[in-house]
Amino acid sequence: MKRFIPICALTVTMALPASAEEEGNKSLMEQGAELFFEGLRQEMEPALDELLGLAEQFGPAMQSFIAEMGPALAELADEIEDWSAYETPEILPNGDIIIRKKPPQDPEIQPEIPEAPPEGETEI
């Protein structure tokens, strides 16, 4: 998709000088670009209509959710200074949601390496 937009822009800019030379008549490049964009519009129209329908369906529910939960979420955001200090939320089977704090990452503390068992003994 990132390459699509520059290609379209290049097509349109290439068609503009050609149409100026023909004084009113459309060049093949300009006609091709128009046909391409018309076909693209026709192909995208059902998806855009469906997206508009979803927005109309969920819009009122989202506005209600934001109106009710907005102040509570703002208070929570004020209390939490660093979101990266917490694990991702976990939903328990009973419906409770747990958000655990990550263990501190202190670079001076080295993890303990267990000692090797003395030679001749095998730990089972």
UniProtKB/TrEMBL annotation:
Keywords, sorted A to Z: Signal
Disordered: annotated segments: 94-124
Signal sequence residues: 1-20
Protein name (Swiss-Prot/TrEMBL): AAA+ family ATPase
Organism: Ruegeria atlantica
Organism taxonomic ancestry: Bacteria, Pseudomonadati, Pseudomonadota, Alphaproteobacteria, Rhodobacterales
